[in-house]
Each structure stands twice: as C-alpha cells, then as structure tokens.
Design goal:
- The structure is a single chain.
- By secondary structure, this protein is mostly helical.
- The strands form two sheets. It has a five-stranded parallel sheet, sandwiched between helices.
- It is built from 48 helices and seven strands.
Length: 959
C-alpha cells in the first residue's frame, strides 16, 4: 500500500503515456534510505502493465509496454554489464520477436546475452553498440520500460551503456526509471552519469501522521491513539521503512497502540533497522563515521565546528561528512545545532565504538566545551560518561557542575557529579575530605542517612577544627536521630578545639554557637541536659540578641529543650519562638539548622498565629530548590501548625505528603513526630504504617519509640482492647518521663491513658492520671493543652463539678487557636448546662457551630445544630471564619479596603477576597446590606466596636 505518493505516480504515468506515443524520457527517484524509492519504482512497473494501449479515434493502436527490471548491488559492481544483462536476458529467453530484435547491428547482442557472462572477450564496444541496437529494435514493436533499482551501485559498463541509451530515448518510445540513494558515495557526481540526462527527478517525502495511522492499523490491527501515533512519527521521522520495522517489532512484542505505550515505542530499536543502519554506515568514508561518532558523543544541539574538532576533521571533510549524514537522514538540524535523528542511530554508533575510543572522545569533548565556555553541567555530562581516570581540571569541572546543579534545584544530579569525582581523588587526602563534605551537602536534601556516612568518612581527613566544625554543621539535625547520635563525641571534641583555631572571632563565635545548639539537640534525651536548658536561657538575658544566625539556633535549641521538659512556661518560650521567626528568613535552608524545632515550640505553646504564611514561603522555596527532605520537613511543620489549629483533615494531608515526598526510609524526626501526633488526634493509627520497621521499632530514640507506642495504644483501642491500650499509654508515659519529656501537650500519654480508663469505667485509676495531667497543663500554661486537660477532668470527675470545669476550659480556650478543641468543649458545656441555663447553652452552641464549620468538624457542627433546634434558624449554614468576621466588621465601620489591609498587615487583594466570601456566605451584596446581615446572625454588636488587630509574623525578605 503506497501512501502519500500520488504526485510521484502522476508524473510517472505521464512519462509512460508520452513514451507510448514515441516521446521517451528518464525518470530518477532520489531520496534517503528507506523513504520508499523502490516501492515507487515497482509501482511504475505496475502502471506500465496496466497502461491502456487500445486504438484511439483516427490513430493506430499504441505499442504495449515491455517492462524490464534490474537490481544493482555493491557486490556485483565488478561484473561488467551485469545490470544490462539483468534487464535484457529475460526478454531474449522469452523467444517472442527475438529474431527480429536481434537482426542487423544487434546480432552481437544475442551472442553476448546467450554466451558465457565471465568471458572478457564479449565486453567490447561492439557489444555495447549491439545492446543499444537491441533496445532500439524493441521500441519498434513495444514500449520498453527499463526499471533499475539502486542505479548508483551499477557496474561501469552498464553506466556507459545507459549513458548512451538515455541520449536516444527522447526520439524513441523508451522509458528509463531508476532509483538513486542520497548520501551513498557511489551516488555522488560524476559517478552516476546517466542521472544528468533525467527529465524528471522525484523526491518522495516522509509520511505524515495520517499515513502513520493507516500503517498502524494495517500492522497492529487497531487504530493508534494520538499519543502513540505521535511517538511513532517522531521516532521514525515518517520514514516508511523505519516505521514498518518499528510496527513489526511492536507486533512481535505485543505492544498495543495506546497512549500508555507511547514512551515505550519511542525507545524501541528494531534489530532489522539496526542491521540496515550498521551496513549503511560501514559503506561510508571514514570522515562520515568520525562525524557520526562525534555527534553521538556530543548529543543534541551539537555545534558543527565542535563536531569537526572532536572528530579530527578539517573543514572540507567535516562539511562532507555532515552533508552525507544529512542526505542519509541520520542527522537533524535544530537551529544552528545538530543531533542524530533517532535512538537507533545512537545504538548503532555505540556498538561500533571501542571503549577506549568512547572515553577519549568524551574527555576530548569535555575539554573542548570547557574551552568554549559551555555550561558546567554539559561539560560534566561528558566526564560522567567516561570511565578513564580524570585529571585535576576535570575534577574541578565536576565540582563546578555540582554547584550549578544545586543552585538550579537538582541535588541528586549534583551528587552524581561529585560521586564520579571521588573515584579519581587520592583516598587519604584533604581534597577527598572536601569532596565528601560537598557530597554530603547535596545528599542531605534527599538521602540524609547517606550524608551522615560521608561526613563520618571525611572527619578523620580534615586537619583543622574549623573544617571539622563546618563539616558537622552541614548535617540536618532533624534527620533521623539514631544516625546522628554517633557524632556527639566528634561535636564535643571539635567544640573544645575551636577556641585555639585560627580564624576571625566572629566566625569562631558563629561556629561555637551553632555547635552548642546541635549538642543540646543531640542530648535532648538526657534529663540532666534538659534540666539545664532553663538556666542556660536565663544566662542569655531577658531579651537575647536575635540578629546572629548562630544565636537564633542556640535559642531555638534551648527553647525546644525547655519545651519538651516543661521547665519554662509556655508564655516565655512562645515569646522567644515568635522573636526568632521575626528575624529568621522564610526559606528552605532553615531545614538544615535546628530552626525547624521552633515550630513544635510554638505549636506546643499554642502560639501559631501567622506561622502558615511563613511556612508557605519556605515551602515554595523548598520546591524551587528541588530538595525532597526540605519539602518533607516544611510539610511536617505545616501539619503540626494545622493540628494546633484543629484543622485535622488538612493536617493529615500534610503529614501524609511529608512522608511520601521524602520516602519513609528517610523520614525526619519531625515527620515522625507529626505523623504520630496527627494519628493520635485523628484516631487513625494506620498513618504511621508507612514508616519502615527500622523506624517504628527504633530503640535508640526512646521519645520517638514512646510516641509510636502511644499510636499502638490507639490501635489497640480500635481493636476494642482498651486494657492493652492503657498498658501502651502507661509504658509510653514511663519512657517519656525517664527521658525528661514531661510536656503535657507534646507527650500526652497520661491524657490518653486517663481517657481510656474512664471509658472502661475505671474512674479510680483514671482520676489521679487526669489530675496529674491537669496539674502539668496548668504549670505549662498553653491554652489548648489546659483546655483539653480541664475537659478531661470534667469527664472523669463528672457530677456538679463538670460545668464549672467546662466553663473554665471554655474561658481558657478563648485565647487558643485550636478551633476544634474550642468547638468540642463548648458543645460539651452546652450539653452540661442546657437544663438550667438555656441562654448560656444557646450561645455556646452557636459559637461551637461556627468554630466547627470553620475547622471542618462536621460531626460537631451537626450536633450543635441538632441541639439548637428551632434556634438554629439564626445560625448561618456556612459560617464566616474569624478573619472574615474581622474584615466584615471593619468594612461595616467604614474603613476602606486599603485601610483594612494596612491594619491587618495583609494585601488589598486578600481583603477583597475575604469581603467577597462574606457577601456570598451572608447572601447579601455590597457593604450596605452586610451590617444588617451580620447583626441578624449575631456576628456584629455595634458600629463603634473596634476590630482587634491581627497578629502576624512578617518573614524576613517576604512580602
């Protein structure tokens, strides 16, 4: 089936018609290998056989065509007049008109064609003239149609005979059609002399996508999907032979023509096509193969001049070689650059290249590109591809490329460059140590456990305390603690040596502070270290300096230690955390310091206002940098903040994403803590199942182990095994207490144990636990933790004291950002006081409903509406958020959008968005109707009530 060849066949049909009327010509079909030249030639023969030769009005019948075929081949070029013999021998053997056609001057031709083809005596000028006369005699009775495939491979005798013949065809009814392959050396002028006399030269074009679709249907039996068709067309560039080979390979492998297989078919290299390309390249001059190897090594977008230099070709040989590759359609021009046409060409050239030559070309390419100022990573690509030893310049180039890869957000690529450089650096040298540190710096973004191993290898090779300190500080403190504990001794030793190191005092101070911060974090399981944190913080003064990054790290580490041990009240550490974040830039780099620990501090202290905007900025930076660990840690930080806000669904989503981004094997301690706390609050213990057994069964870090034991307790509750759950909770409390972790919010083992015992009906055991938990919560002072503890105490003690405790809890929670806890406590308060204090219950229910709607607690919202009964008509079905209420009140008071934005520290666009939500939720339009709608809903008291200012953290460098 010929596709998209109508124009060529139309020209051939017209040439046949003219030849039948005595006006012969020569038609040449030219093109690259596989374009379908032979198919067009064969179709010309079929057209000749189908040609109508009957008489026309007023004229005699036209002579019938006589089709003669020959196929030239390189192996037969030494066989004189071999192609001529292929054309004429079958006609002589047929017997028809032989005596007439071989009469006169054509008689020697008969002897030649019937004689010994190896006899040199027959290959004379007389024989050539006789053969010409033979064809001329044929034209008296018939229309000779001579079809010659691959004319460029014909022997010299045939070319001489044909050159003379084509001079006569215009006066005779003879049609000569031949194919010539572009790019073949034998096809170059003046090799194929008869081509110069051709009247028509046809150039079959590559197939379009419609024809590719038709061939897919023909060979695979079903229509191809658009993506599959596009992949086939791109892989073969519309070359019919390549396309058919590809589809036959698809059929043999059972590849269906569907979009899902598009990438697979794009990389497929049929063996038959590989053999054809290999044979074609072997017949080319050395300059062509050299240029092809250079293109293969340089890859896409190769500069032609660089190709020539790499191949060792002068200007003439370079242009000749590239021209031949272009005519063979083995190369594609993209702007000013070049590339090999498809994967099959790459594989064929790779197979023909010895390993030593491949290494030489890649090293030479790297040197050329480096000299020409190419991008560092393009130079590094060639150094990676070489297995030969690298010199110092090449190692430096790999380090430069790694730095560029890190800057563009590709740390894994950077690590590949540095690992290659390590292969050719002396094993016991400072250069190797520096490379190991650089490698760890890249690996910490996606494989922190491997980074620890490389820093451990580098430390003995580093000679100065400063270098060792900087190496230790490249590690990520919130990476899984079990791998970092072994570095504690190295940190202590380095800290002792730093005072004697030669460096600027400011630099020494920075390193000392950062090392001290790391050591406090590494020892946060030591009760004595935990107990000393408050004293160390006190020694820094009432308002410690925050401008220095080392000071901020130390303050965060001490605040975290004081938080987990609850040795300082929430109010004090909360203020410290807020001041740190006001000075700390919101970027991904904070992940590799101890600064992420400020988020658990703020969350535990119930001081999370403004944190999400800071973390959103940091997450955007982490995504731009491409570091998986950075993204995972920031997502975990967001999960903790959302958990503190009572937005459990969003917190769960962030916690799950955090583990999936980094991979469970490289989960950070912050991710594990976030997953465990989210699992407890959402009552979904299966959330931690994604963690590998190595982490879930960790014993080196008793705190992580205790948190996961608490999750196992939750899992036992879900299996209806409350006794087993209580044992898990109490075991966790014991382990946490021994480690010095006594914060009732961050480690609420007593809370869960008392809650479960109460549900079991064992109030005597539950009461002391609840009382102890409440005492700790009061001492800590965070509103959310104290509110939950009071609610637990109310549930455990019950009776007449419950309303009082719940009122106290509701009052405390007014200052909390935990919307879910507030909604839950208010609902319980309403249920407790409803029989005697209906107005108080209704107010509590209305507020509970609004809070539940805002944080997405559908169950609490539904229960509040149910208890409100007829009074629920005044409750908006979609409540305003606290920010929307604030914006709405300020708008009703007459403030402009810009004034509201300035007062709240947000953009004008954000104010407009909040007002639009208010109009939609309150079913009103414009500010005129907003006041009455708010008043009807009980959300607006009087026009003169000032709106409280929003508390927000402005991240340094962020809008």
């Amino acid at each position: 089936m010929l596709l998209e060849r109508q124009n060529e066949l139309t020209v051939a049909a017209e040439a046949l018609r003219l030849a039948a009327h005595g006006n012969g010509s020569m038609v040449v079909i030219s093109g690259p290998p596989g374009i379908g030249k032979s198919a067009v030639l064969s179709e010309i023969g079929e057209l000749a056989l189908r040609l109508t030769t009957g008489p026309t009005a007023g004229s005699a019948a036209l002579p019938r065509p006589l089709v003669m075929r020959a196929y030239a081949a390189p192996a037969e070029r030494s066989f004189a007049l071999g192609v001529t013999r292929q054309l004429l021998e079958p006609v002589i053997k047929s017997g028809t008109f032989v005596s007439r056609w071989s009469a006169g001057s054509a008689r020697p031709a008969l002897g030649f064609l019937q004689g010994d083809p190896e006899s040199p005596r027959q290959h004379t000028a007389t024989t050539v003239r006789a053969l010409l006369s033979l064809v001329e005699n044929m034209s008296q009775d018939r229309t000779p149609v001579l079809l010659i495939d691959d004319l460029h491979w014909a022997d010299e005798g045939t070319l001489d005979w044909l050159d003379q013949l084509v001079q006569q065809v215009p006066q005779r009814g003879i049609l000569v059609a031949a194919t010539v392959c572009e790019g073949e050396p034998a096809a170059d002028p003046p090799g194929v002399r008869p081509v110069a006399a051709a009247e028509h030269t046809l150039f079959p074009a590559p197939l379009g996508t419609a024809s590719v679709d038709a061939l897919i249907l023909q060979h695979l039996g079903t229509p191809g999907e658009a993506e599959f068709t596009a992949a086939c067309h791109a892989a073969t560039r519309g070359n019919p032979l390549h396309l058919v080979s590809l589809l036959q390979e698809c059929r043999s492998r059972g590849i269906a023509p569907v979009a899902a297989c598009a990438s697979e078919v794009a990389a497929l290299v049929p063996p038959a096509l590989r053999r054809r390309l290999l044979l074609g390249l072997q017949d080319q001059p050395p300059s062509v193969l050299a240029a092809a190897r250079a293109l293969h090594v340089l890859g896409d977008g190769a500069d032609p001049q660089v190709v020539g230099e790499l191949a060792g070709l002068d200007r003439v040989d370079r242009e000749t070689g590239l021209w031949r590759l272009d005519r063979l359609t083995l190369v594609v021009r993209e702007g000013t650059g070049l590339r090999l046409a498809h994967q099959a060409v790459h594989e064929v050239i790779e197979d023909t290249m010895p390993p030593g030559e491949r290494n030489r070309l890649h090293l030479r390419a790297a040197a050329l590109l480096r000299y020409r100022g190419s991008t560092p990573e393009r130079v590094a690509g060639h150094l990676l591809a070489s297995t030969a030893p690298l010199d110092d310049e090449s190692v430096a180039a790999l380090r430069h490329a790694a730095d560029a890869a890190v800057r563009r957000g590709a740390p894994e690529t950077a690590a590949r460059y540095l690992r290659r450089a390590l292969l050719d650096v002396p094993p016991h040298s400072e250069a190797r140590a520096a490379l190991l540190v650089e490698l760890a710096t890249a690996e910490r973004s996606f494989a922190p456990s491997v980074a620890v191993r490389h820093i451990t290898q580098a430390l003995p090779l580093l000679t100065g305390a400063r270098a060792r300190a900087e190496a230790l500080l490249t590690l990520t403190p919130v990476a899984t603690g079990a791998t970092l504990l072994s570095l504690g001794d190295a940190m202590r030793q380095t800290a002792r040596e730093l005072p004697a190191a030669e460096m600027r005092p400011a630099d020494r101070r920075l390193l000392e502070l950062r090392l001290e911060a790391r050591l406090h974090h590494l020892c946060d399981l030591d009760p004595s270290v935990l107990a000393s944190a408050a004293d160390r913080l006190g020694g820094l003064g009432g308002r410690p300096e925050m401008t220095h990054p080392g000071q901020r790290e130390l303050l965060v580490s001490l605040a975290y230690t004081a938080t987990v041990s609850a040795t300082l009240p929430a109010r004090q550490v909360s203020a410290l955390a807020r001041r740190v974040l006001e000075h700390e830039p919101a970027c991904a780099a904070h992940v590799h310091t101890v600064v992420p620990l400020v988020i658990p501090v703020a969350v535990t202290a119930d001081s999370v206002t403004g944190l999400m905007s800071w973390l959103d900025t940091a997450l955007a930076d982490a995504e731009r940098r491409g570091g998986r660990l950075e993204q995972s840690v920031v997502l975990s930080e967001q999960a903790l903040v959302l958990l503190a806000q009572g937005r459990l669904t969003a917190a769960r989503d962030r916690a799950v994403r955090a583990l999936s981004v980094s991979g469970a094997e490289e989960a950070s301690t912050l991710s594990i803590i976030a997953s465990a706390l989210v699992a407890l609050r959402t009552r979904e213990p299966d959330l931690v199942e994604a963690l590998p057994e190595r982490i879930r069964g960790v014993h080196e870090n008793c705190v992580l182990a205790a948190l996961l034991v608490m999750v196992r307790g939750m899992k036992a509750e879900r299996r209806h095994e409350p006794g087993m759950a209580v044992e898990h909770y109490l075991d966790a409390e014991y382990a946490l207490d021994r480690a010095g972790w006594r914060n009732p919010v961050l480690a609420p083992a007593a809370y869960w144990a008392a809650r479960t015992l109460h549900r079991m009906g064992e109030s005597e055991r539950a009461e002391p636990l609840a009382e102890r938990h409440l005492e700790q919560a009061r001492a800590w002072g965070a509103p959310s933790g104290l509110g939950r503890a009071l609610a637990l105490q109310a549930a455990v003690t019950g009776g007449s004291s419950a309303p009082k405790l719940l009122r106290e809890a509701a009052g405390v929670l007014e200052a909390s950002g935990d919307l879910l806890t507030r909604a839950s406590v208010l609902l319980r308060l309403a249920e407790a006081v409803a029989p005697r204090h209906a107005a108080e219950a209704e107010a509590a229910l209305r507020t509970s409903f609004e809070l539940a709607v805002e944080c997405g607690a559908a169950r609490i919202a539904a229960r509040a509406q149910e208890l409100l009964g007829p009074a629920a008509a005044g409750v908006p079905t979609r409540g305003l958020t606290s920010t929307e209420r604030m914006v709405a009140r300020m708008a009703v008071e007459g403030l402009t959008n810009q004034a509201i934005a300035d007062a709240l520290g947000v953009s004008r666009r954000a104010v407009e968005k909040h007002l639009t939500n208010c109009y939609r939720k309150m079913s009103t339009s414009g500010r005129s109707g907003l006041a009455s709608a708010l008043e009807d809903a009980g959300l607006f008291e009087s026009p003169g009530t000032p709106a409280p200012p929003a508390e927000t953290i402005r991240p340094q460098g962020a809008a």
